[in-house]
Amino acid sequence: MKNFILLLLIINTHQSWGNSILQDTIKRQELEVITIVGDKSRSIPGSGQFINSMKIDKLNQPNINQVLRIIPGVNIRDEEGFGLRPNIGLRGTPVNRSAKITLMEDGILIAPAPYSDPSAYYFPTFSRMQGVEVLKGSSQIKYGPYTIGGAINLLSTVIPSSFQGFSHLAYGSFGTNQQRIWVGDSRKNIDYVFEINRLASNGFKELENGDNTGFDRRDVMGKLRWHTHEDASIFQSVTLKFVSSSEKGNETYLGLTYNDFIKNPIRRYAGTQKDLLDLNHQHISISHSILPSKGLSINSTGYYSNTFRDWGRVNAAGGQSLNSILQNPDALATAYQILTGRATGNLDFQSAARTYFSKGFQTNAQYLFTTGEMTHKIQVGIRYHEDQADRYATRSIYTMTNGTMVLTTSGVKGNQENQLRKGRSLATFLNYDLSIKGLKVSPGIRFEKINFDFQNYGNADNARMGTALKTAENGLAILLPGVGFNYRFNESFNILGGIHRGFSPPGMPSVTSSTGQAKMESSTNYELGYHLDKGGFSAKMIGFFNNYANILGSDNISGGGAGTGDMFNAGKAHVQGLEISMEYNLLQGRKSSSNFALPISISYTFTDAEFQETFLNGGGDWGSGLISKGDKIPFITPHLLTGNIGITSKKMDITLSSRYTGITRVKTGKDVYIFPNEKAKYSDVNALNGFLLADLSVNYKLSKSFTAYMTLNNLTNNKGIVANLPQGYRPNMPLNFNFGMKVKF
Hints:
Layout: H1 2-13, E1 47-51, H2 53-59, H3 64-68, E2 74-77, E3 87-90, E4 102-105, E5 108-109, E6 129-136, E7 151-156, E8 164-172, E9 177-186, E10 190-201, E11 215-227, E12 235-249, H4 258-263, E13 276-293, E14 296-317, E15 320-321, H5 322-327, H6 333-339, E16 345-371, E17 374-401, E18 404-409, E19 417-436, E20 439-456, E21 470-488, E22 493-504, E23 521-534, E24 537-550, E25 552-554, E26 567-569, E27 573-585, E28 599-611, E29 615-618, E30 624-627, E31 639-648, E32 652-661, E33 664-665, E34 687-688, E35 691-701, E36 706-713, E37 721-723, E38 730-731, E39 736-744
Parallel strand pairs: 4-7
Antiparallel strand pairs: 1-6, 2-3, 4-5, 6-7, 8-9, 8-39, 9-10, 10-11, 11-12, 12-13, 13-14, 14-15, 14-16, 16-17, 17-18, 17-19, 19-20, 20-21, 21-22, 22-23, 23-24, 24-27, 25-26, 27-28, 28-31, 29-30, 31-32, 32-35, 33-34, 35-36, 36-39, 37-38
């Protein structure tokens, strides 16, 4: 009984902030993977989905985009084909650089600077994850700062309960290869896991000079935990976690004109041959958990991360901006010929170096008790967080000669951008769960106090002496209430719903914007749905409605803007939709079901997003000019559909996955669609055609510890346009294969 109580306490410990939402194995041979969602997705108020290690292993996808699409409500824009920097939105939030959702790894904010510069240019390597949690609606109010769309928590390799090891080798098309190994153990008082992971590729795009267009990413991760004896009167543990990641990516912002895309969608212009992303990320955290008395748990974590990112890329050719060339390559023929290596001329090259740090301390206490037939759980948490983005952008000049770029003028550091962005936050929450019979009601409240400090030194003050310094500060405080409920009628059927106030920070105060300081983004969010689980058939349907009092636009190059980083008020907006997911084993209840299974699953999302005010937009991702009430919000795909069907036996499992992405508007408006074609100008195109992709994954278990697998991605070799951002049209990855071996020891 004592062990059962301890297990229950530890489970509930990590249903709020802590050293991670996923609790590592503390009690050997008793705990496995424990999450805030997991198998409890039917009982939590609000929407929560969990992708466990079994599903991840079946799909064999190192690209998180391919995996997240099995969850409804997730909108993703592909960019470079490998999912290294996903563009993710939840329930209609902007997808650009995943900047409007709360990203975590093991419960800790993981974006390089989530308050002062939230674009997630660093994203954890998905290959080393054992699970993914997605929280939407009132269930994610504890996990800010971005509480409109939702939160994604990546679950890293857990410390095993006894000595275990795992190795993974893979090789495939375009020289794509992976090597991964981890070992871990739980001893009397000391537990550990250490992991090394490498993912690399030569790239599938083609430069005429044959240069590599791929990447090389490497990770080292470790967890070391001390804990008291299992029979200690007060159980506690201390966990040290570290991550070191590096990447060299020969990746570019620049796509293609439509005519060039039709001729060869995987072409890269000669002007991008020097484009390179240099990235390094280090993270360390120390967590303490203690169970001081029956029903009470306290968890505290201090964390620090440092990220350096320098993305050097072509910025202009022949004195013309890249967007101008893409819009009219015939009229700007000389600049276009320079960009494609057919003529001699100058290319502007921008090195966008940024150094980020993020640090903080978070603690929470949770108390669980019962009175009669009622169960009560009170959670209270507090987090102090600071982050900073140090931005230097440097413009240099290359000369294109016979298809080769030669550096002719090395720019002075900071001659394009020279600024510091700082943010600090104090956030608290109080949440109360009341359970009685089949009903659970969860009222809660979140408070955020945020301060921003912006320092722009100007492009001529390399030493930052302050001769042309412009500064601005901004502060806000907001109270975010919410309530969710879940009512289980019986073992098969339950309903859920909730209402909460959503919030996103307004970004840095601007010293250049003509539209003034943006106000914070706020909304009132509603959801209502049901979950049916009977006879092996599982279905969930949830309707949602996000009523924005003020929606924000942004100006980033990666989103098609000028790159000022300014935020823009757009007033009222409505985002509403429907999320449907179903799973069923076609052999359920048949005699053959003990040896075989035919699982099928379907995930569908409908989203309708409209502006509810007429306003003059200041520029950025939504373009310039008048935006009218009733115009559709761009980059939010109305129809998303994912379907999986599999064959599973004791030795083998086969999974066929298909993903349909519907027509996506890329400009505001409500008129007829103008798709890319030979006659349409790049600037006139307002929508991209829908497309269907299909993948196949086959796993064969050669022995208890040895599994071989194969994947075939983009089976039909679909050559559709997946995006027109950051600049120009971008393709799917062509038909490709991957062979791999996994060994447990």
